[in-house]
Records
---
Amino acid sequence: MHHPTSLPKIAGFASIFIGVITAAFAFISKSAEAAIYLGAAGVLACLVSLVIARKNIDELQMAVAGLFLSIVATGIGVWQLYNF
């Protein structure tokens, strides 16, 4: 039996994936500018995911989690910029 995956669910998973990758890159990298740019790109991608997933609460929660991780990654980049 075929179970199609919906676009909001894919967007939610992508949002979490982007958030985790940007947060990990911000922790590992010593380049503050790259962490800020990648985190900002993650925030934009997560905002698009929020718009796509706004109808279903489960996908919306995944998009918000990815958005939180991307904001944390951007904050880490800004912190690195001013403290290193």
Note: The helical segments are 7-28, 32-52, 57-83.
---
Amino acid sequence: MSGATADGEAVEAANTALYDAVERGDLDALAELWLDDEISVVHPGWPVLTGRGEVMRSYALIMANTDYIQFFLTDVEVTVLGDTALVSCTENILSGGPAEEDGSAGPLVGGLVVATNVFRRAEDGGWKVWSHHGSPVLVEGEDEPDEEDIEG
């Protein structure tokens, strides 16, 4: 196995671990995956958050307010250049809100987010997240007017 292939596989594993930690709601595991400083995150619809404290607080807030979340990653592309790696992917997200008053599961909602995750090789040789940027994908819904409806 070449070094480039091994690095690509290690980066893809680190990327998968990032999403797995969020799915489990495991903030400690998530924190271990990020570099110690100079990190940033852009969650869909949020401003840029920088610094470890702000980034970890944002994930804690998301986890505290999401009873269920699952990511199905598609279109995953990994590029490694030296000690930096870029992963682009589509997050096909299924999430659920708080349980209903009767104890039944809350409503499930689906969404699409295009994400870019930047990794840096850490001193121990492992790959750590440097930056995550997620942008929502707007999907034309059936309730939205067609161009013909607008023009007509």
Note: The chain has a mean pLDDT of 90.
---
Amino acid sequence: MKFKKILKALAATLMFAVTEMVFSSTVQAKYVGHNATPTELRGNWYAYKGHNKWTHIKITKHAFIYDGKVSCSLNKNGVRKLHVMRYKQNGRPYYDMNKSNYHYQEIGSFWLSRSKVQGRRVMKSYYNMGYFTVYTRNKIKHDYSYEVKGAGYMQQIGK
């Protein structure tokens, strides 16, 4: 009789220990990049180039299309493969759409800005040397793009 009580107590202790180990462990996923674009950036975006011409960007879940040509997607290989990386600057996120080995292979950094044109938020992009392109959801005959001179242009990414 005493042996059964000891065996039950030992089994209960063992079950408690196993349950405690299973439920007390914390699981943290490591961020390794994503194969889908953020929903806030998806859709059609336009930037006015002048003379009734626009730059057109179409962002779908698995592709980035620039002026009708697929710049990167999941079906491509190498630097043209869609690989969305999320970064933070000034407490706000911005996204790079592909991995690149050299600067000329980059598509650029994109983010949804707090700035508004005609009551709607705009998407901004940064590619090179302080020049920021502003994209709107509608075709508007005005170029909202701008350039920041000096060393402070890096602080403008994400704003």
Note: Strands lie at 43-50, 53-60, 63-66, 69-73, 82-89, 92-98, 109-117, 120-128, 131-135, 146-147.
